[in-house]
């Protein structure tokens, strides 16, 4: 969630800059078209890439304060490279594939995100089971 929020903030500022420049050069219609295009694509760009990076960092970091070692952890780097590759391919001038490429990259990014969501839900379920087990062990007279 934190990664998605950071990515959303970035893409909002980046999109505003692109929209302004396009509006100044080509007029209002081109600017509005750019805003709509960047709007639907935002779910597969910096929001998704930052989500992947954030989801890669938090399991490595755990409960500790953030340290340099977390950013050089092999597990973090592998998933960070996924986000970097997705961004690099997105920016490649493969004009003959653009619409199919964009949709494909969005699908790939969201496959990673859904995997992280699933892992997070499993972790919550395990924590809930642990709490229920511990509550069952506590005698009734201690629980009030």
Notes on the protein architecture:
The radius of gyration is 21 Å and the shape is elongated. The model has no long low-confidence stretch (mean pLDDT 87). The protein contains seven helices and no strands. Helix 3 packs antiparallel against helix 5 (74-91) and helix 5 (74-91) packs antiparallel against helix 6 (98-137). 12% of the residues are buried. Helices cover 84% and strands 0% of the residues. The chain is mainly alpha-helical.
- Mean pLDDT level: 87
Low-confidence stretches: none
Give the number of helices: 7
Report the sheet with the most strands, covering strand number, pairing sense and barrel closure: none
Report the order of strands and helices. HHHHHHH
* Structural class estimated from helices and strands: mainly alpha
Task: Give the helix proportion (percent range).
Answer: over 70%
Shape estimate: elongated
Taken as a percent bin, the fraction of beta residues is under 5%
Q: Report the strand count.
A: 0
Summary, kept brief:
This protein is an all-alpha fold and 144 residues long.
What layout of secondary structure does this protein have?
Blueprint: H1 2-26, H2 28-41, H3 46-61, H4 68-71, H5 74-91, H6 98-137, H7 140-143
Helix pairs in contact: 1-2, 1-3, 3-5, 3-6, 5-6
Supply database-style keywords.
single chain, 144 residues, mainly alpha, 84% helix, 0% strand
């Amino acid at each position: 969630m934190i990664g998605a929020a950071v990515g959303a903030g970035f893409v909002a500022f980046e999109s505003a800059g692109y929209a302004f420049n396009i509006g100044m050069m080509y007029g209002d219609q081109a600017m509005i078209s750019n805003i709509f295009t960047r709007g639907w694509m935002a779910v597969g760009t910096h929001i998704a890439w930052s989500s992947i990076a954030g989801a890669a960092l938090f399991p490595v970091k755990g409960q500790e304060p953030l340290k340099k070692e977390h950013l050089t952890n092999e597990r973090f780097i592998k998933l960070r490279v996924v986000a970097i590759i997705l961004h690099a391919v997105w920016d490649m001038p493969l004009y003959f594939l653009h619409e199919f490429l964009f949709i494909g990259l969005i699908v790939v990014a969201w496959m990673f995100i859904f995997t992280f969501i699933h892992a997070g839900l499993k972790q919550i379920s395990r924590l809930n089971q642990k709490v229920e087990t511990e509550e069952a062990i506590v005698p009734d007279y201690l629980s009030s």
